[in-house]
Amino acid sequence: MLIRAYWNFYKELLTFIAAFAVLSILLFGMLWGYLLFITVGLAIGFLGFEMFYKEQYYFYFNLGLTRKKLLIVSFCVNAILGLPILGLLSLLIQLLFGTTSLL
Hints:
Distance between the termini: 41 Å
Number of helices: 5
Order of helices and strands: HHHHH
Largest sheet: none
Shape: elongated
């Protein structure tokens, strides 16, 4: 069941990605925050995983998953999950503040 392994890896990355995403949304706005979430946020997540959970790579290597495979699947999951999150955040901002601009 490799799907569970990919999901477990993404959950580990998500803590680092989410922290970076909140910071980038506050600094750069909704649209740029989303773009940074799906691109640079993933690099931040990998860097955090490399620093704090490096020994867990052996678990994924034993399942036949390379870092490249983990990166590709994490990018796809990040992009797919990012679209509904962007929609919910923009709806929430529109309801709270009355603005419809994503910038």
